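So, does this match?
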Amino acid sequence: MKHRLALLLLLVSVSSSVFAIVLGGSNLGISGYPDHFCMKPSKPIKPYSFNSRWEIDSYNSQVDSYNMERQRYVGCVKDYLEYASNDIKRIEERMDEAIEEAKRPSF
């Protein structure tokens, strides 16, 4: 039993240094806060050699496409962060409302 407890404590201490773990109750659902849904683009594969104009043009086209997809990805992540910040503000507003309600006398 002591070994299991020690292992559990070790895992919690290691994982808390790797992941942001918040102990305590939560009003979030069991799955927590949703992850972003942004699709990270794959880098184009550089050909071994550029033996023809077609290979050069094709690679340049892939790079252009990647750069556009990368901009969309970064924009998507920025939107996710902005929305998360808005959610935090909404939560803080609800917390302030709860504090004010608790301060008011009920009689």
